[in-house]
Design a protein that fits this description.
The complex is a heterodimer. By secondary structure, chain A is mainly alpha-helical. Chain A is built from four helices and no strands. The longest helix of chain B has 30 residues. The chains are: A mainly alpha, B mainly alpha.
């Protein structure tokens, strides 16, 4: 059968690219990260808004608190952690850098560095989770 | 699935097909184009290894451009380096850390890309502004500038600009965006975020992919086919003869 050369080329390239694309399909499965559910009913802002702008709220709150001395709890990182990283039934608390941690579930997925926890704690404030003091003090 | 997501999914499949096939055809055309003369620009390397090194210097440092014009080199190199960083920063949308290609994650999740990937945007915009200024303010260059020269710069500026705005001013849901991209790759379509900047950014990128195989951006593969750069300087040691020249030689030999 006569076919112009460029048609043959097209068919060839298409065929090869489809073959090359086959292993990609094995990547299918969970395309979205699994995000741990929060303790409360709803967030301080609508979920869709939080997904996009949470970092702005937290940074804005930081500036208000640290530079102007206005200390409220609405956008405070501490409250985020209290609600979103509550301990599991067995009492274990997920740590940042681990996919089970609320922040890390998406931050690992999208390769965005979180530097909040270089200083702040990634666990809710609760004496129960503190290490026992060892030795004589 | 939203109508928007279906439209963009189809658009990207079409754009990818045009980009890959168009580029492959162009590369084949370049590879088949005869280079009948031995014309390496001297001083040229006398071994094949030397040619590889010379080519690497051209690709990585734009050596010839540096010798020719420092300003063009500065802005051009700045733009391309930023493009490389932006490429690695965008790679995160195409790879799932737990997927089959998770082993490539260190390419994305490393200090250089994490620290500079985002800010490369500014170097890219600056480079493009410089190259645009060159076309306007340098008389000789303005005289030879065609509409497509401006179009390419404007298109790249618009793509970089919308990306920079999303990164620093008006954010979008990048988790949903990544799901959309992974969905395209794995043929398991997902919705994309319906923000104006994402729509604009992705639409312009699709347009760029479509016109790439017929644009001046073909200098990317074309560079490797420059006879003045990719030839070994050994005309005395080894006779340079093209395929059609060889055929004539053989015919002559058969006659005799």
């Amino acid at each position: 059968m006569y076919l112009p050369r460029y048609i043959k080329q097209l068919v060839g390239i298409l065929g090869v690219s489809l073959l090359l694309a086959l292993p990609l399909t094995s990547q299918a499965g969970d395309l979205l990260p699994s995000i741990p559910k929060g303790k409360g009913d709803k967030c301080v802002e609508p979920t869709a808004d939080m997904r996009i702008n949470h970092m702005e709220y937290i940074l804005h709150q930081r500036d208000d608190t640290m530079r102007r001395g206005i200390r409220t709890s609405k956008h405070s990182l501490k409250e985020c952690i209290e609600c979103h990283n509550a301990p599991a039934k067995d009492g274990k608390v997920a740590r940042v850098g681990n996919k089970e941690h609320f922040c890390s579930s998406c931050h690992i997925y999208s390769a965005v560095k979180v530097d909040c926890f270089e200083c702040h704690t990634d666990k809710p404030e609760n004496a129960q989770y503190r290490h026992a003091v060892k030795g004589n003090h | 699935m939203t109508v928007l997501s279906i439209f963009f999914a189809l658009l990207f499949y079409a754009a990818t097909a045009i980009f890959v096939i168009g580029l492959a055809r162009k590369i084949m055309q370049y590879a088949r184009t005869p280079a009948p003369l031995k014309i390496p620009t001297t001083p040229a390397p006398v071994t094949q290894t030397g040619v590889v090194l010379r080519m690497a210097r051209e690709v990585v440092l734009f050596a010839s451009l540096f010798k020719s014009n420092k300003w063009t080199w500065l802005f051009g190199w700045m733009f391309h380096l930023a493009l490389l960083l932006a490429f690695f920063r965008h790679l995160r949308y195409t790879i799932h850390p737990d997927g089959v290609f998770g082993f490539m994650w260190p390419l994305i999740n490393n200090p250089i890309v994490l620290a500079f990937g985002q800010y490369a945007a500014f170097a890219m915009l600056l480079g493009l502004i410089g190259l645009f200024g060159r076309r306007i303010f340098v008389d000789r260059v303005r005289y030879i500038s065609a509409p497509s020269d401006y179009l390419m710069l404007i298109l790249l500026f618009a793509i970089a600009g919308t990306g920079t705005l999303m990164s620093f001013v008006e954010h979008t849901d990048i988790v949903q965006l990544k799901a959309f991209v992974l969905g395209l790759i794995t043929f398991n379509w997902q919705n994309m975020p319906a923000d104006a900047l994402v729509i604009l950014h992705l639409g312009l990128v699709a347009f760029l992919m479509i016109i790439f195989p017929i644009s001046k951006l073909l200098h990317a593969p074309g560079l490797f086919f420059s006879p003045t750069r990719n030839q070994v300087d050994n005309p005395r040691e080894k006779r340079h003869i093209s395929a059609w020249g060889q055929a004539i030689d053989d015919a002559e030999a058969n006659k005799a």
